[in-house]
Design brief:
By secondary structure, the chain is mainly alpha-helical. The protein is about 75% helix and about 0% strand. The protein has one domain. The radius of gyration is 17 Å and the shape is globular.
Length: about 170
């Protein structure tokens, strides 16, 4: 978040006491979503690659991808807030508050898209369908999750929780 956008958030939003829709910009929401998408995408892609390469059942591959998306999403947030001096336990609580809804929405969207694309779950690592369906699913997850994050940030929830620790 750049300095101008950071100044637009009121103290109440940082404290989690709400705020107006007008103070949370789409840019702020997009940046929060991109941050979340980074960890989510690392876990999602890694899970799909491992599951596909190992020949796991589709359901197992999806569960692995979801678990890894949460692990990497939380880890990236924790890494950032621990730099402010938080303990591991405190950083985990911040990550839970900041990222759980965002990652959950992303995972519902991206896994639904991959499952809905014919033969995508059966595609192999050397096929464009494997990589194309993943890229499309993550792009759509970003589009759907950005308004969710904007709404949450405007109420001092989600990614807004992280800003008090930078």
């Amino acid at each position: 978040m750049d300095t101008h956008e950071h100044r637009q958030m009121s103290g109440n939003e940082h404290a989690g006491h709400g705020g107006g829709h007008g103070t949370t910009t789409w840019s702020m929401a997009a940046q929060a979503t991109l941050h979340c998408l980074t960890g989510c995408a690392i876990g999602e892609v890694l899970g799909m690659v491992i599951g596909t390469a190992a020949g796991f059942h589709n359901a197992t591959t999806i569960v692995l991808s979801i678990v890894l998306a949460f692990v990497f999403g939380y880890a990236l947030t924790m890494r950032g807030v621990m730099k402010s001096g938080l303990t591991l336990a405190a950083a985990f609580k911040v990550a839970l508050a900041a990222d759980t809804v965002s990652i959950a929405v992303m995972e519902v969207i991206d896994n639904t898209v991959v499952v809905a694309i014919p033969r995508a779950m059966d595609a192999q690592l050397n096929q464009w369908l494997f990589w194309g369906s993943l890229a499309l699913s993550l792009a759509l997850a970003f589009v759907v999750t950005t308004p969710v994050n904007r709404w949450m940030i405007s109420r001092g929830l989600g990614h807004a929780v992280v800003h008090g620790h930078h």
